[in-house]
Specification:
Layout: E1 23-30, H1 33-43, H2 47-50, H3 52-56, H4 67-81, E2 93-99, E3 108-120, E4 127-137, E5 143-154
Antiparallel strand pairs: 1-3, 2-5, 3-4, 4-5
């Protein structure tokens, strides 16, 4: 495989590379206080995201990352792990999003993706749909975020078969 920062078309991941039931580790990230504050100040300035005292007196017990920041960190891990070296055509959206536990500065988060389903797109034979479940875990093994949704990817062999091969 070539340099992942500039993959050739043959190096890219296609729909066929995401078989149902497969699990992919998508890496990890360390949550910094500065990033929590920067994101919250710009996009979600609720007191428990931007003020230490208010956060200590909240249900979170301390400064907590916005759920939207948590989603953004998961998205970055997805991009680095596979999307930037794939034939991704975007997503029609999420079916489920759950913030299960607060994320605090200093947490180390790890993302896991499980492929739930795949199917060719009926209206576009060169596109396949991939339904994924992403789970983001903290350093204690607690699931802090759960998302389910669909992605669209180009197919290597448009119109052939209905599901990608296993393996």
């Amino acid at each position: 495989m070539n340099d992942l920062s500039n993959p050739t078309p043959s190096d890219l991941l296609h729909w066929e590379d995401f078989p149902k039931g497969s699990v992919r580790d998508c890496g990890n990230t360390l949550v910094s206080r500065e990033a929590v504050l920067d994101f919250a100040r710009q996009f979600d300035p609720q007191p428990f995201h931007v003020d230490d005292e208010a956060a200590r007196n909240s249900l979170f017990g301390g400064l907590a990352a916005s759920g939207w920041h948590t989603c953004s960190m998961a998205m970055r891990l997805m991009c680095d792990a596979y999307l930037l070296r794939s034939t991704s055509l975007g997503s029609p959206g999420l079916d489920e999003l759950r913030w299960l536990k607060p994320v605090h500065p200093g947490d180390e988060l790890t993302l896991r993706m499980t492929i739930l389903d795949t199917r060719p797109m009926r209206s576009k034979p060169d596109v396949g749909l991939v339904q994924s479940h992403w789970e983001l875990f903290n350093q204690h093994g607690d699931c802090v975020l759960s998302m389910k949704g669909w992605g669209m990817f180009r197919r290597r062999t448009p119109g052939e078969g209905t599901t990608p091969p296993l393996g």
